[in-house]
TrEMBL record:
PROSITE patterns: HTH_TETR_2. InterPro entries: Homeodomain-like_sf, HTH-type_TetR-like_transc_reg, HTH_TetR, Tet_transcr_reg_TetR-rel_C_sf, TetR_C_16. GO terms for molecular function: DNA-binding transcription factor activity; transcription cis-regulatory region binding. Keywords: DNA-binding. It comes from Kutzneria albida DSM 43870. It comes from the Bacteria. The lineage of its organism: Bacteria, Bacillati, Actinomycetota, Actinomycetes, Pseudonocardiales. This is HTH tetR-type domain-containing protein. Residues 30-49 bind DNA. Residues 7-67 form the HTH tetR-type domain.
Length: 186
């Protein structure tokens, strides 16, 4: 097997793992199930990822370009964040590594810790800094950032994890935008 084929095979395994972990959570996914979906031997998953735990960690690497949402005036923060959130939730349904982490957080302590660390680093702290830099005092900026973070996580959990319908993207975006803006403005 050439290294290019190995890289393509590894990527195919990861894509199937992301989809399965996001849709079913950690416990329900098996190495054999991912291998079958990817059209490979389960031994390759062990070789590339060291087993199910390693596969899960690789499949749940999350990147969210939050900086774009903080580029502009606070009066339009809700609109920018809502657009980014809705695009993520509707962009690749069933394949979002953040969704896989959310689903697994209840059953895997390391997933809960990874999710908390990710949200602190990529959501809560940048939002706190943005609100502080927009003219709020530090304590007010921190509490508003925490409220927005908790609101978005709650909506995500309710609508994505508990498998309620996300609803119409435009309606969801308008509601998120207005609510986030109210939280940002106090």
């Amino acid at each position: 097997m050439t290294s290019r084929n190995a890289a393509a095979t590894r990527q195919r395994i990861l894509e199937h793992a992301q989809r399965q972990f996001a849709q079913h959570g950690y416990a329900a996914v098996t190495v054999k199930g991912v291998a079958d979906a990817a059209g490979v031997s389960p031994n390759l998953i062990t070789r590339y990822f060291g087993g199910k735990d390693g596969l899960f960690l690789a499949a749940t690497q999350v990147e969210i370009p939050v900086a774009d949402s903080f580029d502009g005036d606070r009066s339009a923060l809700g609109s920018r964040l809502a657009a980014s959130i809705v695009q993520r939730w509707f962009g690749a349904p069933g394949e979002d590594p953040l969704l896989a982490l959310q689903r697994a957080a209840g059953e895997r302590p390391e997933a809960a810790e990874a999710l908390a660390t990710f949200l602190d680093t990529n959501s809560l702290e940048p939002l706190h800094r943005y609100l502080r830099d927009s003219g709020l005092d530090d304590a007010d900026a921190r509490s508003r950032a925490a409220a927005i973070d908790a609101f978005v996580l709650g909506v995500s959990t309710r609508r994505r994890i508990l498998r309620s319908e996300l609803g119409d993207p435009a309606d969801l975006q308008a509601w998120l935008s207005a609510t986030i803006q109210r939280l940002a403005d106090g």
